[in-house]
Amino acid sequence: MEFLNGLVNVFQTYIFDQPFIFLSLVAMFGLILQKKSIDKIITGSLKTGIGYLILGVGTSTISGVVMPISSLLEKIMGIEAVAPGMGTNAFTEQWASTIAIIMVVGFFVNLILARITPFKYVYLTAHQTYYMVFVYLAIAVEVFINPNTTWLIVIGGLLLGAYCTFAPAAAQPFLRKVTNSDDFAYGHTTTFGVIVGSLAGNLFKKHKDESSENIEINPKLNFLKDITVSTALVMVVLYIIAVCLAGFDYVEANLSGGQPAILYAIVSGVQFGVGITIVLSGVSMMVAEITEAFKGISEKVVPNAIPALDCPVVFNFAPTAVMLGFLSCLGTVIICTILFGSIGWYALTPPVITTFFGGGPAGVFGNSTGGWRGAIIAGVVAGLLLSFGQAFTVGALSTTVADFARWSNDFDYSVFPAIFKWILSIFA
How many domains does the chain have? Predict the structure, then answer.
């Protein structure tokens, strides 16, 4: 058992917690199987990992810009949300090793299923599976008193492996409309949201050729077609409005570190444009290298295997749709926050990070089926899923990690927990 725990710890610490190492090793393995020269193996492996690190820098920049918007909205709307339960830190301390083992088991179950079933998807966004395990394990702890750890690992590993195989398979027909290829699959915990976004976009299928990337604008405003410029300008305006509504004193005391509030708003908005640019650059490098290297795995290990990759891989296909999905999703969440509060139902904490990394991809999928109108309606539907999902999930996790559900609620682990809890209660 001690050896097993040590092995799991190595996998968790050096591979699953370090996606760039994991992806580099996958690329190296694929290139070795193809009998590439040593220089191509080194180059392909490193560029895959470096591409992901570049992507990570971009997403961290975006997250750092977007996160304070939640604080601004809470100040503007006077939200004081209290989350019951033992809390994320205490739950993690108690269940960390179980979560790690389930993740490792789930990864190998995914490989086996990809090998023996028609669903040839290998989930390479391994770090995202942590959140799936974390939330659904918490649901099990909510239902069962002192659950059997062995059974949690066995059942959890099987369910996670199934999710990692079948979620990308479910999304692939919709992703194909975005990419026009099967070079890679969608491997992220926002899968349900992008599928629903694509279906919502069908409401405007007559306009699917009117892509967000081809919107006609006044020639004098052609600079807005540059995604770096347009996103920076949009976010500067959004930030200035939020800063003014929240109050300069509050911003300078709590967010800007004493920097003038308006200057803080301008800098933050421009940094968002920087983040988007970095993300798109990292995605291009990572996808180019991993898809080429993955051919070795698809030929030798899992025939016809398709790598399932992180959500930003779709950003390059419709960058404007990303912003349309994000803004319509954020707007919907704000409206839901006001409505929920006005009727005294639930104090919604605006999950601004998810409105970008969930609403943005949903916009891309919606754009593929309904043009720019589809991108907007996909963002609206995503916002509704996030809002109602948070309300029901916080309630379902009332004695464990309700605090986590308030700030992190990707579709795949915020829409279904209440249903999952009801199913488990049948067997309790």
Answer: 1
Q: Computed from CA positions of residues 131, 295, 50, 8, in that sequence, does the dihedral angle turn out positive or negative?
A: positive
Token couple for 409: 């609620």
Rg (C-alpha) for the chain, rounded Å, is 22
CA 281 to chain centre: 18
Rounded distance between C-alpha atoms, residue 121 and residue 110, angstroms: 8
Name residues whose C-beta falls within 8 Å of residue 111's C-beta, 6 or more positions apart in sequence.
122, 301, 302
Q: What is the DSSP letter of 400?
A: T
Token pair 């990707």 is at which residue? 410
* Boundaries of domain holding 140: 2-427
Cα 155 → chain centroid: 24
Task: Note the pTM of the prediction, 2 decimals.
Answer: 0.88
Q: 321: part of which helix (H) or strand (E)?
A: helix 319-342
> What are the pLDDT digits (tens) for 156-214?
999 999 999 999 999 999 999 999 999 999 999 999 999 999 999 999 999 989 999 88
Two tokens, residue 371: 């043009």
Torsion of CA 82, 133, 326, 393, to 10 degrees: -40
